[in-house]
Each structure stands twice: as structure tokens, then as C-alpha cells.
Structure to design on (202 residues):
């Protein structure tokens, strides 16, 4: 696990709260791998913040847990594309909650505030309505099964819930998501949803 914060005091506080937990191992920025989960604590999403998070993602982090109260709607797709798979308001960011999200992110799971998937879809809808019709009408490249799975992921359902709602096995759901992320060279399901929404695939 790698900690990123906008100020040293927050970074030290997060590291102190998490380093004693046996479920996680802290690493420095020079030891980031594709399996590393980044915990990023940010106040608001300025351009500088987005650049900093992109830099963390570009070092190899494919999963990010976000601690913030300032996630602006126009940044939702951008944030998802950077690999954010879990988000937590600062007031709820206890060590126990963070460890749960980190462990879940390591296992490929996501956890977003209840309102966030709806806001993401609403924002994507507005983006799509503004897009030229020629762009919107391009072939999707996704099978009907993949589109149904991605749609439910975008609504915040986990693998088990998606399998139950679609009468698929969990293995089928995981396989569909793996095929999508491999085909479009995406890091995780959050990026898959962001890509699909941005491109009008769902």
C-alpha cells in the first residue's frame, strides 16, 4: 500500500494509522508495483491534484482508494479512469474502514458512496448528449452480456450481486470483466466503466 496526501501531516497521520495493521504493508514510491493499492487523501480536485494522482497511477498503481469530500461531478469519469475503485468521505476514514477498502481493492472489488454511481451515470449521460451523433452511433464492440455486466458495475453492484441479478455464475461475470479490461487494455473495473461511459458503450 502506498499513501499519497497533499500535505505531509496528513500523509504521516495515514501512515501511522495503517502501518500497525497486519493486513497491509506500506511501501515507498520507489517500490510501487501493479499490485500496490494507493490511498490518496485530497481536499478538492484541482488540476494540480489530478496531475498528482495521474503521476501515482502512472507509477504502476492500478487501484486507488480515495479519501475526500471534494469530488466534483465533472471529475467523475477522469477519477474513475485513474483507477479509483473505492472512495470514502474524510469524516468516515477510520483505520478499520480504510483497511477494509484496501483489502477489497487488492481483491479487485470496489466500494463507492451510494450516490456516486448515479452521479457518474448522470454525468456520462450529459456528456453523451453533447457528443456528435456520429460518435454516439459507432459500434460498441461489446457483447450484450458484457454491456449488461458493465451497466450493473456502473450502478455499484458487486460480482455476486451482478451474478444473481443476471442469473450468471460469478465466474461468468469475472470472465466478462476480464475480457473487457484485456481488450481495451484497462487496469480494473472502474476504468472499464469510465471508458465505456466516455465512449458511449453503455
Amino acid at each position: 500500500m502506498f499513501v499519497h496526501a497533499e500535505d505531509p501531516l496528513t500523509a504521516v497521520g495515514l501512515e501511522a494509522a495503517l502501518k500497525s495493521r497486519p493486513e497491509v504493508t506500506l511501501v515507498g514510491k520507489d517500490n510501487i508495483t501493479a499490485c500496490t493499492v494507493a490511498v490518496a487523501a485530497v481536499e478538492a480536485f484541482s488540476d494540480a491534484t489530478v496531475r498528482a494522482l495521474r503521476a501515482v497511477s502512472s507509477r504502476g498503481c492500478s487501484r486507488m482508494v480515495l479519501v475526500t469530500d471534494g469530488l466534483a461531478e465533472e471529475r467523475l469519469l477522469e477519477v474513475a479512469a485513474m483507477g479509483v475503485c473505492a472512495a470514502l468521505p474524510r469524516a468516515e476514514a477510520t483505520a478499520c474502514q480504510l483497511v477494509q477498502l484496501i483489502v477489497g481493492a487488492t481483491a479487485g472489488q470496489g466500494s463507492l458512496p451510494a450516490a456516486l454511481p448515479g452521479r457518474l451515470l448522470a454525468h456520462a449521460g450529459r456528456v453523451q448528449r453533447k457528443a456528435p451523433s456520429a460518435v454516439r452511433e459507432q459500434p460498441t464492440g461489446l457483447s450484450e452480456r458484457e454491456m449488461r455486466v458493465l451497466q450493473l458495475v456502473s450502478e455499484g453492484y458487486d460480482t455476486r450481486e451482478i451474478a444473481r441479478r443476471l442469473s450468471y455464475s460469478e465466474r461468468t461475470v469475472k470472465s466478462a470483466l476480464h475480457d473487457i479490461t484485456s481488450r481495451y487494455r484497462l487496469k480494473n473495473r472502474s476504468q472499464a466503466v469510465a471508458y465505456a461511459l466516455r465512449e458511449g458503450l453503455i
